[in-house]
Task: structure prediction
Amino acid sequence: MRDDTQDLWVFGYGSLMWRPGFDAEERILATLHGYHRALCVFSHVHRGTPDAPGLVMGLDRGGSCRGIAFRVRAEKREETLAYLRAREQVTMVYLETWHRLRLADGRLVQGVAYTVDRAHRQYARLLREDEVIRLVRQGVGVSGANPDYVRNTHLQLAEMGITDPMLARIVAALEP
Result:
């Protein structure tokens, strides 16, 4: 259960890690159990279009995901949630969900995360790696080129000491 008078915790696992777009009092490595990071969302707005979709990260069921938890002061809670909803729920491919996050310092907090809706038409299930690379190469949307999004996510994970072999192969394949 969440308390709207308390600070807000936001879990970032893709572009929120390197471009949150909101003020945070604290930023700390965190783990979310029960979901994993995957390039599993056809991007029709931010990194592609309906005619030439890109691929962006989603939190999909199973496993665990390491990312960044951001603490937002209680007085900025509603403003931050409104911003996140406008950013993450443009096509409603993500569900706003609340989870227990384990912070790197051992604390457990309740935080919001945007998980993929597997029933949504933009859910990209079980794509072959060559198809992922093709979609990433072609994607350009209102937030920029899809290859830049993938590279930036990969770089952020590397800076955090997190290795993602598939993402590393995709980034290597994107190089000229």
